[in-house]
Amino acid sequence: MPSSESAPGPFHMLECMQSGGFATAWAARDLSTSRVLCFKVTSKKIVSEYKASRLALERELEAYQRLAACIETSYVMQLHAVFQDPTRVYFAMDLMEGDLWEATAKGVSAVQLRRWTAQIALGLDALHNMGIMHRDLKPENILLSRSGDVRIADLGAAYVHDASRLTRGQSYARDAVFTPGYAAPELVGSALRDDGAWIAPGMRCPRYGLEVDWWALGCIMYMMMAGSMLFAEKTDLLEYVERYKAHRGRAWLRSRCSMSENEVRVLYGLLHVSISRRFAFEELEREPFFENEEGVDEFTYLEHRARSPLKGLYRPEKPKYRMAPSGSTVTLDLVSSTDGAPSEESGDWNFWRWFAWHNPQGLWADWKGKRRWWALH
């Protein structure tokens, strides 16, 4: 059992909140601080069987390490640590209240639409300035805190550039990483006019850049306004592209949902098929849509709030640790288990040997553990 010094865990697994194809999300209590966190749990056996799952883990950890090394942003999820035991790997992060998909189902107010769109834009701009392209932005990957603020999450599909920032108009990748319905036309490429699926096995896209994230924001903005997907079928995207080329794209958007002139300006700007004309942060922050009733734009308000001395995102300044009770069969002592060699059934020993990390800005920033943490090489 870890000592009563500032060591994380053991952890009491409380409840499975969501189950996906490669991972499950659990609420877990850190018994040394009594704080409840979210654990994203992935089976090593699955990772060894599916190359895409392993690649996603590597991408996600690399992206969170880049985040930790850069300036803090309030609107991107931070990772506190990565643990492992002989059969599973655990990503520990803050527990959120819900996600944007759930919020959209309940209805989004005009104030929420303006604020959440601005917060996602700030988060995306921060990611791009760090050299990170999300590539899988969708409502399920945008979490909401108890204070009602967004956190862009799930960086398993992220592209991390070797330079410090991404530049508009530059192409960085061509692998087909996207979710149908939120994919920009340049991602879908020639498959847009095919009768088959959005993506075929082994499909390669034309080269693309950060603009794909801003297109996805446009799709999300529409969903918050209308309560449904704009491009639920590939035929919807094809119809929009054809209308856009005929200079009827704005009218097509208006026909799908009731919206104000300021709303359609932003939506159409984000959904420009032409990459050179597509809105990014520089255009959005000048749009009158983001002005509130007092005439203050949302970006100015959020920047002021982010500088508030009351702001505290990830951990208490001086965490209070205590000895954890022993004997619980549902408690995981992940720190000491990470010290051991992975079991043979978990696959690549050399890969898992190095797969553990703690955020120097996170919940256990003051922990000075030895031999139990490694960076991903």
TrEMBL record:
<dbReference type="InterPro" id="IPR011009">
    <property type="entry name" value="Kinase-like_dom_sf"/>
</dbReference>
<protein>
    <recommendedName>
        <fullName>non-specific serine/threonine protein kinase</fullName>
        <ecNumber>2.7.11.1</ecNumber>
    </recommendedName>
</protein>
<dbReference type="Pfam" id="PF00069">
    <property type="entry name" value="Pkinase"/>
</dbReference>
<keyword id="KW-0723">Serine/threonine-protein kinase</keyword>
<keyword id="KW-0067">ATP-binding</keyword>
<keyword id="KW-0418">Kinase</keyword>
<dbReference type="GO" id="GO:0035556">
    <property type="term" value="P:intracellular signal transduction"/>
</dbReference>
<keyword id="KW-0808">Transferase</keyword>
<feature type="domain" description="Protein kinase">
    <location>
        <begin position="11"/>
        <end position="290"/>
    </location>
</feature>
<keyword id="KW-0547">Nucleotide-binding</keyword>
<dbReference type="GO" id="GO:0004674">
    <property type="term" value="F:protein serine/threonine kinase activity"/>
</dbReference>
<dbReference type="GO" id="GO:0005524">
    <property type="term" value="F:ATP binding"/>
</dbReference>
<dbReference type="InterPro" id="IPR050236">
    <property type="entry name" value="Ser_Thr_kinase_AGC"/>
</dbReference>
<dbReference type="InterPro" id="IPR000719">
    <property type="entry name" value="Prot_kinase_dom"/>
</dbReference>
<dbReference type="InterPro" id="IPR008271">
    <property type="entry name" value="Ser/Thr_kinase_AS"/>
</dbReference>
